[in-house]
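Re: that backbone. Tokens:
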């Protein structure tokens, strides 16, 4: 399974020739100027919540690729002209045959760019290629994360670490302990001044908990 980082909280997971793209935000990211969204191939687009830095490029990519969009009911209503949209909500799971997803609690807000209500902010537990990846979305540290290992053994967690709008690295390291994973890829940092972080301090916070933190360069891939 390959993980590819497009910057901010946008990344893809590819297994068995199917690509899942998460929270597409590229054209607005000052650090992702080298990426052309027309070059991105995907079969599914998963959206954790309605904020512009998670959905900006979803419509353009979905229209070009015909990818199935998976998101909250409220965001699905906002995107209803797209055609292939699958609404979900916190606590629900679904087998898309290429992978399974369970929507889990995230402590965050979810207003859409025009002020519409976006429903609950969510995280996703993705079961694909005999592995489980916890895609936390934007979230604070929450005791609800302790439920996650009761549903699945988490092979890798994709956690926000930028502070200000989400967990910082110290809280994210505690989240990794709660979800019982030893492997974390950090997202949602450095994009804007509010969330610039010290990479060495972030890595040290995870080392203290004996968890590996990977910080990828934009457009870099790693295997999970
Ligand atoms: Ni957000």
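Recovered sequence:
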């Amino acid at each position: 399974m390959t993980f590819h980082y497009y910057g901010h909280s946008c990344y893809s997971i590819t297994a068995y020739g199917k690509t899942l793209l998460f929270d597409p935000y590229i054209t607005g990211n000052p650090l992702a100027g080298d990426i052309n969204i027309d070059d991105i191939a995907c079969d599914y687009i998963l959206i954790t919540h309605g904020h512009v830095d998670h959905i900006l490029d979803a419509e353009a990519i979905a229209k070009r690729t015909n990818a199935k969009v998976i998101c909250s009911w409220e965001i699905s209503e906002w995107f209803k002209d797209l055609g292939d949209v699958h609404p979900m909500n916190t606590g629900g799971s679904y087998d898309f045959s290429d992978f399974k997803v369970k929507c889990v609690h995230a402590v965050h807000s979810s207003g859409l760019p025009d002020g519409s209500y976006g429903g609950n902010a969510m995280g996703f537990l993705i079961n694909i290629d005999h592995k489980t990846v916890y895609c936390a979305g934007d979230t604070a540290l929450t005791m609800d994360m302790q439920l996650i290992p009761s549903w699945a053994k988490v092979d890798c967690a994709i956690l926000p670490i930028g502070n200000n709008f989400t967990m910082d690295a110290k809280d994210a390291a505690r989240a990794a302990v709660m979800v019982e994973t030893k492997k974390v890829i950090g997202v949602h940092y450095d994009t804007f001044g509010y969330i610039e972080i010290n990479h060495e301090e972030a890595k040290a916070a995870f080392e203290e908990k004996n968890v590996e933190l990977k910080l990828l360069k934009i457009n870099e891939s790693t295997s999970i």
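The chain has a mean pLDDT of 97. The domain at 2-218 is CATH 3.60.15.10 (Metallo-beta-lactamase; Chain A).
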